[in-house]
Task: inverse folding
């Protein structure tokens, strides 16, 4: 290696010159900082060459030291200067250095200048012409690749290092042109620099060589001319440093940067980098325009623009987050609103982190800002929907495709009476609470398997034993790929509606049965009328103690029982035409219970809670008596089978604020009959008011008792409700409307005289009843004419002399009703009184009776004394009117 002394002050030499020269085949033996020190070290160390800074401090400076070292020690010196001005060049020329470097220079340029300085000085005895052996002696000392070229660019010699770079041997490379070892793309550049060397100029450039294997070898070249005799160029020296790794690293870095830039510039998120302290922007991706509505230049030129865009109400929160970030240096995220120049407000989520310097201190901040306005609005919509689902009264259930329940809203707890958390994770089939539910859910799975929607009814059995009925809909929810992701069920509590439907169904059923029962009762009344009437006539003629009279009395008793049954049927059908008067219920109920006590077994007790101020109702006493008797008889039968018990009868006022299961809203007189017997099943309770439905054995009852209670209560404008469960007894509550305040109990009229001599026209389409009237009324002294057709009756009225005193007619007759006959008869014979006989008739209202001139109405079947009293009362009322006139 060539031993060299370095003497540098503040020249343009690079700070790492010594190690760089060492890599190029030089051995720096010392470093001097002044002119005097440089001369001293040169004397002591005897280097082969010296590199002096022209600006060295001390006597004579660099030029003085140069002259001393060259003239006294004979060591070649290269002067270096950072300023190539005229004065410095003159001083350097006066010192006659063997080489000169001006301005900033590279280690390679310094090495080339030192090599040339080692050549014999001009004016010295000319040495023999240097040959390749001399050049190779110099090349062997450097670690860089060295290439000696002749003026044409042919290889004179190379060192081993250069040959190794190219995968060659030095010998075979000799005589080959430089261009043979270059990448074809760099030939023009190499030609230009080779020409500059011929002209005496040095240059430095990057060059691509091709190895023997064809791979690229990047080198940085320091190319300098080699002067020959008389200053002519005898060739050039090319020192090559392998920078292939650096080039590949730079290319990889550039490729990485390009990929990063492409990624960042195509992100929908905004990527930014800024100085941490000053807030000055260093980089922002193009999406900044889309989100902030501003240009990249605004970001780079306006520090703090991100903060300025934040709405004032969010700015303080953002400042606190930034303060924590500066303090801790940990990544953080925050959501806030920004105002764009066009007035739009957008929600932004920013995640930022620190970029540390070489010492590990946070110097810059980088982050991603995402426009979440759409997501935020969608979240608000979802939140509103979730709150709505939480608030609605309908049950909402969500399951996975397998039917496992994943969500239930609070309404589930209200309807089912169970905590919704206990339901999560269970299968939907756990909701089946009864056999009828399982039947109604039978079509659920086939409907959903076909991708359809199922709807039906279902009931929840609550922990307290009650049931709530719901109308449910179950539908699939599909994902983006068209697959079932979930099922949703919406269920509405229709318990109240179901009860109203049941009541309506019951009312329609009772109405239909009542219509049927009323029709049967009408025909039966006519039959009973004949049986009871002729039995009374026969009894009147039979001896008092005869067996015939006893037998006829039995027939009459059977007829009366049949009449009572017909009246129950008519009361059930609400077709009975009973006279309603204001009744004080408390005394009547007490009286009925006293009578009832005598008929009950000793093991059945009666407990009473009768409010004397319960009030009055508009009813017939027989109706109230029948209600109490039938309810108590029903309770006594249930208790008797269980070995006894207690019947509790309560009477009082009750006010219902709203329509409930207990009854309609309003003020009521409430009669309640309860027992502590075995109770009834749901199936029995559902049919308890049906006519002829009974749980009694054959011959123990007709099944009309509770049906009559139902018909009577509704006929009086009230309602009746039954409550029972197995093992919990039964309770029947009858609600009746109170009578108006101005209504007062009426008094029965005095019994009229039964006999008479007046002329009576009796009309009934049943011949037996017409014959009965002739015989019975004839026996009382009346002159009776009977007929079975309304048209025949009208003919008799027109020609009768003397005229008839009274018309008694049936209501239901073919071709003409009794009311129509009465109206026509009154036109023919004004003032003629009329008695109307009927089993039932909605047309025979008090208004209709007055309008058609009917003085009295008798309900079939009636007894002959009832008929006689009615006739006598009507005739005497007419005579009183006539006398008064």
Result:
């Amino acid at each position: 290696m060539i031993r060299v002394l370095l003497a540098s002050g503040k020249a343009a030499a690079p700070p790492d010159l010594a190690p760089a020269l060492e890599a190029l085949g030089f051995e720096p033996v010392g470093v001097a900082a002044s002119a005097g020190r440089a001369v001293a070290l040169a004397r002591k160390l005897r280097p082969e060459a010296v590199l002096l800074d022209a600006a060295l401090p001390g006597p004579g400076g660099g030029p003085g030291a140069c002259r001393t070292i060259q003239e006294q020690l004979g060591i070649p010196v290269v002067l270096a200067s950072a300023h190539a001005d005229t004065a410095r060049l003159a001083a350097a020329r006066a010192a006659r250095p063997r080489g000169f470097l001006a301005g900033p220079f590279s280690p390679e340029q310094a090495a080339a200048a030192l090599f040339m300085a080692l050549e014999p000085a001009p004016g010295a005895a000319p040495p023999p012409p240097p040959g390749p052996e001399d050049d190779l002696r110099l090349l062997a000392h450097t670690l860089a690749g060295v290439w000696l070229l002749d003026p044409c660019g042919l290889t004179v010699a190379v060192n081993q290092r250069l040959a190794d770079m190219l995968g060659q041997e030095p010998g075979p490379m000799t005589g080959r042109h430089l261009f043979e070892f270059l990448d074809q793309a760099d030939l023009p550049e190499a030609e230009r620099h080779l020409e500059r060397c011929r002209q005496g100029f040095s240059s430095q450039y990057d060059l691509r060589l091709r190895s023997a294997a064809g791979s690229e070898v990047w080198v940085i070249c320091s190319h300098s001319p080699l002067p020959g005799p008389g200053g002519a160029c005898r060739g050039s020296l090319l020192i090559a440093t392998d920078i292939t790794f650096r080039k590949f690293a730079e290319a990889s870095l550039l490729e990485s940067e390009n990929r990063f830039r492409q990624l960042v510039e195509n992100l929908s998120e905004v990527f930014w980098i800024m100085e941490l302290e000053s807030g000055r922007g260093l980089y922002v991706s193009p999406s900044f325009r889309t989100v902030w509505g501003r240009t990249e230049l605004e970001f780079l030129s306006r520090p703090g623009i991100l903060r300025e865009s934040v709405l004032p109400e969010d700015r303080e929160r953002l400042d606190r987050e930034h303060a924590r970030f500066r303090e801790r240096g940990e990544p953080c995220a925050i959501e806030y609103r920004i105002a764009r120049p066009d007035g739009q407000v957008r929600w932004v989520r920013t995640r930022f982190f620190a970029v540390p310097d070489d010492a590990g201190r946070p110097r810059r901040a980088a982050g991603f800002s995402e426009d979440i306005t759409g997501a935020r609005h969608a979240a608000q919509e979802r939140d509103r929907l979730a709150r709505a689902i939480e608030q609605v009264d309908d049950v909402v259930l969500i399951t996975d495709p397998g039917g496992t329940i994943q969500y239930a809203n609070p309404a589930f707890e209200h309807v089912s009476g169970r905590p919704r958390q206990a339901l999560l994770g269970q299968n939907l089939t756990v909701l089946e609470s009864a056999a009828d539910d399982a039947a109604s859910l039978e079509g659920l799975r086939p409907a959903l398997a076909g991708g359809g929607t199922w709807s039906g009814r279902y009931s929840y059995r609550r922990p307290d034993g009650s049931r709530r009925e719901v109308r449910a809909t179950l539908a699939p929810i599909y994902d983006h790929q068209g697959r079932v992701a979930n099922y949703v069920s919406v269920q509405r509590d229709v318990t109240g509606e179901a009860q109203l439907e049941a009541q309506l169904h019951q009312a329609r059923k009772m109405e239909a049965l009542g219509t049927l029962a009323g029709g049967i009762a009408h025909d039966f009344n006519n039959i009973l009328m004949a049986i009871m009437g002729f039995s009374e006539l026969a009894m009147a003629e039979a001896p008092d103690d005869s067996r015939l009279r006893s037998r006829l009395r039995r027939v009459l008793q059977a007829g009366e029982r049949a009449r009572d049954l017909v009246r129950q049927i008519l009361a059930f059908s609400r077709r009975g035409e009973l006279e309603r008067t204001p009744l004080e219920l408390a005394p009547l109920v007490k009286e009925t219970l006293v009578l009832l006590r005598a008929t009950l077994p000793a093991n059945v007790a009666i407990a009473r809670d009768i409010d004397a101020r319960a009030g009055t109702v508009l009813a017939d006493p027989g109706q109230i008596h029948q209600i109490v008797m039938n309810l108590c008889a029903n309770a006594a039968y249930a208790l008797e089978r269980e070995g006894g018990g207690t019947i509790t009868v309560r009477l009082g006022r009750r006010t219902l604020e709203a329509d409930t299961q207990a009854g309609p809203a309003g003020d009521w007189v409430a009669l309640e009959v309860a027992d502590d017997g075995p109770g009834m099943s749901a199936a029995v309770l559902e049919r308890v008011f049906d006519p002829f439905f009974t749980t009694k054995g054959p011959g123990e009852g007709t099944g009309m008792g509770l049906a009559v209670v139902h018909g009577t209560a509704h006929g009086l404008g009230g309602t009746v409700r039954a409550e029972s469960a197995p093992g919990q007894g039964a309770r029947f509550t009858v609600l009746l409307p109170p009578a108006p305040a101005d209504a007062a109990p009426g008094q029965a009229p005095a019994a009229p005289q039964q006999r008479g001599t007046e002329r009576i026209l009796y009309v009934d389409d049943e011949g037996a009843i017409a014959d009965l009237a002739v015989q019975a009324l004839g026996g009382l002294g009346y002159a009776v004419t009977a007929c079975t057709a309304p048209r025949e009756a009208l003919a008799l009225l027109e020609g009768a002399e003397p005229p008839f005193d009274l018309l008694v007619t049936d209501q239901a007759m073919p071709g003409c009703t009794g009311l129509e006959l009465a109206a026509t008869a009154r036109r023919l014979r004004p003032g003629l009184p009329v008695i109307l006989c009927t089993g039932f008739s909605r047309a025979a209202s008090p208004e209709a009776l007055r309008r058609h001139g009917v003085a009295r109405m008798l309900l079939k079947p009636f007894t002959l004394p009832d008929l006689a009293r009615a006739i006598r009362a009507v005739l005497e009322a007419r005579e009183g009117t006539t006398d008064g006139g």
